[in-house]
Amino acid sequence: MTDLPFYVPVDHECELFTTAFQQRLPLLLKGPTGCGKTRFVTHMAARLQRPLFTISCHDDLTAADLTGRYLIKGGETVWADGPLTRAVREGGICYLDEVVEARKDVTVVLHPLTDDRRMLPLERTNETLQAPDNFMLVVSYNPGYQNILKALKPSTRQRFIALSFDFPPPETELEIIANESGLARERCTALVNLATQLRRLKETDLEENVSTRLLVYCATLMAAGLDPLQAAQAALVEPLSDEPEVQQGLFELIRATF
Ligand code: ADP
């Protein structure tokens, strides 16, 4: 178990994931960006010894990007499975990150896989694949974006069991940052305290809160010898805001910490 991707559980999410996998239930992960959803899925796929197929969804992603398409190779037309089809054929875990970003036809392809039929119809090849027991569908989305046009439809949401993610509690976040960056624990503690303060700032100032990912970046720069203020400017202030006044406010808070 030592070569598993590093993941610190926050609650009983590993047990829930394992049970969902065993019971052939699809899983929806909700939560802000950079709080550990992708790492969690990577860790669980390794733990369950299943291949992982990750797809980052975007507005141009179509059903064919998931299922597959005919390609011309050496003058011949050959079918190439997409990542979802491969996951179904091989009995793997298919993870669709930010699923609401994808086009509507993607959800249509997912529906028959999410109920007890567990089927993937491939119109182009005239096949209907039956997902094996060790296939699992996992999707994530960030409810914080609040984009009404892109909200996950209740009819889709209700096809999944769901798990909410948030930034880890301070002790857990400390362990994560220290482990990921190699920065001394007491310096990581200062960063975690800073994050607590930044997260308390009202959301009117910041569109998105400081993520664990950004804290890991900042700690990594510091561990590599960069001046803490310079590291914080590059890893926290700049990625969090484009507004000079907001940046100034953030920087003052940071200067008071280091
Ligand atoms: P998300 O998928 O939610 O956007 P990630 O899974 O990519 O976020 O997490 C960003 C980074 O934060 C990871 O690369 C990892 O360094 C760190 N991280 C966050 N939560 C955890 C955790 N519970 N255990 C280990 N690392 C974590």
Automatic annotation (TrEMBL):
GO molecular function: ATP binding; ATP hydrolysis activity
Pfam family, one: CbbQ_C
The keyword Nucleotide-binding is annotated on this UniProt entry: yes
Matching Gene3D superfamilies: P-loop containing nucleotide triphosphate hydrolases
Domain ATPase dynein-related AAA: 26-160
Key words of the record: ATP-binding, Nucleotide-binding
Residue ranges of every copy of the CbbQ/NirQ/NorQ C-terminal domain listed in the record: 173-256
Domain of life, source organism: Bacteria
Similarity comment: family membership: Belongs to the CbbQ/NirQ/NorQ/GpvN family.
Name the UniProt record assigns to this protein: Denitrification regulatory protein NirQ
Organism for this UniProt entry: Nitrosomonas stercoris
